[in-house]
Design a protein that fits this description.
This protein has 2 domains: 20-206, P-loop containing nucleotide triphosphate hydrolases (Rossmann fold, 3-Layer(aba) Sandwich); 251-379. The strands form 2 sheets. Strands 2-5-6-1-7 form a 5-stranded parallel beta sheet, with helices on both faces. The protein has a two-stranded antiparallel sheet with strand order 3-4. Helix 7 (212-221) crosses helix 8 (231-237), helix 10 (253-264) crosses helix 12 and helix 14 (334-356) runs antiparallel to helix 15. Helices cover 48% and strands 8% of the residues. With 383 residues, the chain is of the alpha/beta class. The radius of gyration is 24 Å and the shape is elongated.
């Protein structure tokens, strides 16, 4: 494993963000760390752990934190010694930032650590869609070569959801007969996609959505240029995902949200020239990332509108000062809230399908705007 090989990009790094291995601490998720620490203190360190939760909340960062602790700590800490004396009790997974093993981990030269991920296709210059059986088979040589080093060995699979059927079956055999002193850390965004037999052989650490305070703290640690005025909007629009907040910051998510909200504020009669001007920002040359953010911001506007209409509650965090007034006009009844919720799902599916079949982005966006206009007219009894 090498983190500094410039010829191969790292699949789990958001543009402009630090690699999860670089973090010396994990912000949020204290309950998960307490559970893992408790297992160590009670001498019940399971051989396989599944770290679950939505994308972008810090699962990879947490897995690297565990790996660093395990590789920098002697095995004897897990249980009583040969003489029966109690092991030292730990309170956190903190380690000495100058530990020699940590330096090797950060340099990508620690022989007792293996990272399993989707392989990189050098010819096509992109990552393959799945983790293949060949990636799991490489663990055999890793186990054989690292055995002579002594101490623990750690495998991080990021993400286990990406394994194809053959890879999953090969991993299952490893889980059934794990090598001595080996800990496997499986990162999973959607555990339901994994074989039940894999899930049953892992202890689960569930990580939840981050608070706005946590997201703000994480963003402050990144080498990203973020306007202080946007911090609140990024936290709100990211739905508890620091990774999503970073993507939104990189691709002007709050600005796109404001543009969409400004357009639908004109409903039930949206100005055609304004709609066309907005749509023409998105062409066949628009990056995939920018189109992702566009689709996400449409989803956020409509889902927040539907929730406001269904509950009547003002959003806890406003992204735009005029949201309440706009939402009140467009969603006056619970039935209209249901209509907006259904439209949100319909447009999300339509947007994904349109991208999959390479529809013209301009036409696709215009169509979405007109459907929003039609729904607004229905909400106000004009159709």
């Amino acid at each position: 494993m090498s983190l500094d090989d410039d010829s191969i990009p790292t699949s789990d790094v958001i543009e402009g963000a630090k690699h999860p291995s670089e973090a010396l601490a994990v912000i949020g998720h204290q309950n998960a760390e307490d559970s893992f620490v408790d297992a160590i203190n009670k001498g019940r360190l399971h051989h396989a752990w599944m770290i679950t939760g939505p994308k972008g909340i810090g699962k990879a960062t947490f897995a690297w934190r565990i790996a660093k602790y395990l590789l920098c700590s002697p095995i004897k800490e897990e249980g009583a010694s040969l003489f029966g004396d109690a092991p030292g009790v730990i309170e956190t997974l903190d380690i000495d930032p100058h530990h020699p093993v940590l330096r090797r981990i950060q340099a990508g030269s620690e022989g007792r650590l293996s990272i399993v991920r989707r392989p990189f296709d050098a010819k096509r210059k992109l990552f393959k869609a799945q983790i293949t059986i060949e990636e799991i088979r490489k663990l055999r040589s890793f186990f054989a070569l690292s055995a002579a080093d002594g101490g623990r060995r750690v495998v991080i699979i990021d993400a286990a959801d990406d394994m194809n059927v053959n890879a999953a079956n090969a991993l299952l055999k490893v889980l059934e007969e794990p090598p001595q002193h080996t800990i496997l850390l499986l990162i999973s965004h959607q555990p339901s996609r994994l074989l039940p037999t894999i899930r049953s052989r892992c202890r689960t650490l569930r990580l939840g959505a981050l608070s706005q305070v946590d997201i703000d703290a994480i963003l402050a640690t990144q080498e990203l240029e973020i306007d202080a005025a946007e911090m609140g909007a990024l936290s709100t629009l990211s739905a508890g995902s620091a990774g999503e907040a970073m993507r939104l910051a990189q691709h002007n998510g709050p600005a796109v949200y404001h543009q969409i909200l400004g357009l639908i504020a004109q409903a039930p009669k949206i100005d055609r020239p304004s709609a066309i001007k907005f749509s023409e920002q998105y062409t066949a040359r628009t990056s995939s990332e920018d189109l992702d953010i566009l689709g996400l911001m449409f989803d956020r506007v409509l889902s927040r509108l539907a929730v406001f209409g269904a509950t009547g509650n003002t959003p806890a965090e406003l992204v735009h000062s005029g949201e309440v007034e706009i939402f009140s006009k467009l969603c006056p009844t619970p039935q209209s809230a249901q209509d907006w919720a259904e439209l949100c799902q319909e447009l999300s599916n339509r947007f994904q399908h349109g991208r999959a079949v390479n529809l013209d982005p301009v036409a696709l966006v215009l169509d979405m705007i007109f459907k929003i206009e039609h729904c607004a007219k229905r909400a106000q009894g004009l159709t």
